[in-house]
Design goal:
InterPro entries: Siphovirus-type_tail_C (IPR054738). By secondary structure, the protein is mainly β. It contains 1 helix and 28 strands.
Length: 310
């Protein structure tokens, strides 16, 4: 099922496959840490002989989100099943699962989280199917929030346009241009199939940098992708055969060939560290290139990303 497919109204919170909010047995009254900035680590250092600091980077820590004051209501005969669903969704895991929250008309946003705390008070109301004051805490190792829709932009290697054909084929004589495109029809000139510029455009509509996933597909030698705005380049000194796919996950800092073998060691001296290749808010134009002589039209690059928000 698609991520956040059950979120249809404001106040809905979906953790994995469990929906909380209106129309469900789980109603909540307080959400903290979702709209807040995460805690920040500052790289600034005091000036040794002057007032103030030498400005450094601000790096966000994990985002901690707490869904508080949850009221759980069900028929007494159904409360066990309702509590089992909550327990399954909030179990201890080594991996992160999607948390989707929609608070207003801006629509839902996504974070990847693990449940790090759960509190379910058991009182007299339990016997009649009502539990009050429950809470669940989530921790997202990536503090950014993302739109649900994943975008994809593709490009092939640069290719020239064929242009006008000045030869009509009459005994190799140059008889001029043929203006007709059909019998007895003056249809204008045919300029041939448009060529490829080898460029693509990605737009991050959020306010935080996004780490894209880049897929190079063969046949191509020394594939590279350059952000024309920043000059940052990903380039790998290897040959990709037909059917080969090199997937570069800039968020994780990996480069994997055919889903099995790491090829990080093939990064060229021009290539930036994978984790520094980001899409800042706004529009980014990127160019797909390869080694001289590598111009197979079947080669391609695909860039996948979600707009990111603090």
């Amino acid at each position: 099922m698609a991520i956040g497919d059950q979120v249809t109204a404001t106040g809905h919170v979906q953790l994995g496959e469990l929906l909380l909010g209106r129309g469900t047995p789980y109603r909540w009254r307080s959400l903290t840490g979702w709209e807040d900035l995460p805690a920040l680590d500052s790289g600034s250092t005091p000036r040794p002989a002057a007032h103030g600091d030498i400005l450094g980077r601000l790096l966000a820590q994990s985002r901690v989100v707490t869904l508080d004051d949850i009221v759980i209501r069900a028929r007494p005969a159904e409360l066990g099943a309702v509590m089992q669903q909550l327990g399954d969704a909030t179990a201890v895991r080594d991996h992160e699962i999607p948390l989707v929250v929609q608070l207003d008309d801006r629509g839902p946003l996504l974070a990847w989280v693990r449940v790090t705390a759960r509190s379910v008070p058991v009182g007299r109301g339990y016997t009649v199917g009502t539990i009050t004051g429950a809470a669940v805490q989530f921790t997202a190792s990536d503090p950014r929030r993302y739109e649900l829709l994943e975008h994809t932009a593709r490009a092939g290697l640069p290719a020239d346009e064929p242009g006008l054909d000045w030869n009509t084929g009459e005994d190799l004589l140059d008889a001029g241009l043929d203006w007709a495109t059909a019998a007895n029809v003056d249809g204008g000139l045919a300029f041939g199939v448009p060529g490829s510029t080898g460029t693509l455009t990605a737009r991050n509509a959020g306010n935080a940098p996004a780490h894209p996933i880049v897929e190079f597909r063969g046949p191509v030698s020394m594939p590279s992708l350059t952000n024309l705005g920043t000059g940052d380049t990903l380039e790998y000194d290897l040959d990709l055969a037909v059917g080969d796919v090199l997937v570069v996950d800039t968020g994780e800092g990996t480069a994997t060939l055919n889903s099995t073998a790491s090829r990080l060691y093939t990064a060229s001296v021009r290539s930036v560290p994978e984790t520094t290749f980001t899409l800042v808010p706004g529009t980014a134009d990127m160019a797909f290139r390869a080694a001289p002589g590598s111009s197979d039209p079947a080669a391609s690059v695909a860039v996948r990303w979600r707009s990111a928000y603090w």
